[in-house]
């Protein structure tokens, strides 16, 4: 499963930490020393997971964020997160197949039938098919997002169990404090309604196995 593969390829310096978790290797890189600081941290994205589709992951993380939320990037938590990433990849693959095979089959059958029996309106039929494909892709993306979000919530629940509710809540607060401090927000200017932690930058788009372009 590829996640931000271009960023992965550009991270060639020495990582400041490496974790070997089962068959996986997770390396951490200081975002502050890269050209990605403005692109990601400037938009409130302080931790970016990347992979080229192998069992190696590179985490680009802003250092003050890492220091403030270090327990979220320790071995036991990353083990849970890797299980989520693996599961998200499988979800994306299965849903892609469920939608792609019927859609492609329908397109081919109708195109052949139109070419043989309705050549005069061939273009109109193909345009209608393209509209169906577009709608199918929209439904597929929403369905994939929903399933991945459900798995993400399950993973966060597991992380809460590992860390304990009290420590988890403290780290949620630490995340908000870091955000306000980084952007120099006053408490009166920024109110959080977030009950969970933004531990990783992964969503339905970044787990698409078929794409090789950055989410950003």
- Rg, Å, rounded: 21 Å
How many separate domains? 1
CA-CA gap between termini: 17 Å
What is the strand tally? 5
- How much of the sequence lies in strands comes to 5-15%
Low-confidence stretches: 187-194, 201-216
Q: Helix coverage percent of residues?
A: 55-70%
Note the total helix count. Answer: 6
Account of the protein in words:
The model is unreliable at about 185-195 and about 200-215 (pLDDT under 50). The radius of gyration is 21 Å and the shape is elongated. The chain contains six helices and five strands. The chain is about 55% helix and about 10% strand. A five-stranded mixed beta sheet has the order 1-4-5-3-2. The chain has about 220 residues and is of the alpha+beta class. The chain has one domain.
Give the gist of this structure.
The protein is built from 6 helices and 5 strands. With 216 residues, it is of the alpha+beta class.
Task: Please supply descriptive tags for the structure shown above.
disordered C terminus, 56% helix, elongated, 216 residues, alpha+beta, 5-stranded mixed beta sheet
What topology does this entry show?
Elements: E1 2-3, H1 5-10, E2 17-21, E3 24-30, H2 36-40, E4 47-52, E5 56-61, H3 63-68, H4 75-117, H5 122-163, H6 165-182
Parallel strand pairs: 3-5
Antiparallel strand pairs: 1-4, 2-3, 4-5
